[in-house]
Write a structure and sequence with these properties.
Chain lengths: 106, 156
């Protein structure tokens, strides 16, 4: 079971500044372990972000994205309390979805 | 930090085992169908020209309306923060390419009208190279580049 994501969505005017931190090894398939065996490639392929159920960003990644990936985006026309949901799927078929509400500006 | 509602859901999953499993499988399938097809040709390509071809970009036009924010010198190639802003109207797609990586194409983001032409993430780079942002807007391709010097490579 994958670890939960950390998602923060803060309102700036009518734009929600969304910051996502995913816990994932993002193994490139070129690294070796202490015995010299190659660690198999294991990385997130698809990331989708929805705003109140409507897709606003649909990303495809390669193994070149850093370990424990960060993703930042800005969603237009957002209001406090809107739902931002993030789903990722990796090359082993593992998947996880997390959702947060947009927080009002400080 | 244990979310009580999550605990409840897990307990329910135990009680309604078979039923819930069926539902979960259904959900996973439908979400996969919605997600864009992973661009295998592009992500497996070993040269930037190949990657551009797989994106359908050909030779993109260099544009000053794309701003790449990345460090001039990155000490650790395993974590290079990159942010891309496209001020081109109707930006549909933003891709990130590191010219000298073993597999140059790193990420493609389909940006819908609901989000600004902005993405930021962190990438791995093997050596000093240009980082390209390739933007698709109204079916045309534009690009911008920025050189990032790498002290220690992050591929191996």
């Amino acid at each position: 079971m994958a670890e939960p994501m950390k998602i923060r969505a803060t309102l700036q005017g009518d734009i929600a500044d969304v910051r996502i931190l995913i816990l994932h090894p993002m193994e490139t398939g070129t690294r070796k372990d202490s015995k010299g065996d190659i660690l198999p490639r294991h990385f997130i392929q698809n990331v989708a972000v929805t705003h109140n159920g409507k897709t606003v960003l649909d990303g495809q990644w390669s193994q070149a994205i850093s370990r424990n990936p960060f993703l930042g985006l800005r969603v237009k026309g957002a209001k406090a309390g809107d739902r931002i949901s993030v789903t990722w799927t990796d090359n082993k078929g593992d998947t996880r979805t997390d959702e947060v509400a947009v927080a009002a500006a400080l | 930090m244990i979310d009580p509602s999550r605990r409840t859901i897990l307990k329910c999953a135990g009680a309604f085992g078979a039923l819930t499993m069926g539902l979960v499988t259904g959900l996973v399938k439908s979400s996969n169908a919605v997600a864009a097809q992973w661009n295998k040709a592009g992500f497996e390509s070993k040269a930037m020209a190949e990657a551009l071809k797989a994106l359908g970009a050909g030779t993109p036009v260099e544009s000053k309306d794309i701003v790449i924010t990345a460090p001039d010198i990155a000490e650790n190639g395993a974590v290079v923060p990159v942010a891309i802003v496209s001020k081109i109207p109707n930006t549909q797609q933003i891709s990130i390419i590191a010219e000298k990586n073993p597999r140059p194409l790193m990420a493609t983001f389909d940006v819908s009208s609901g989000s600004e032409g902005y993405v930021s993430t962190r990438i791995k780079m093997g050596e000093t190279s240009n980082v390209w942002a390739v933007v698709k807007a109204d079916g045309n391709f534009f690009a911008a580049k920025k050189e990032v010097k790498i002290t220690v490579g992050g591929c191996g």
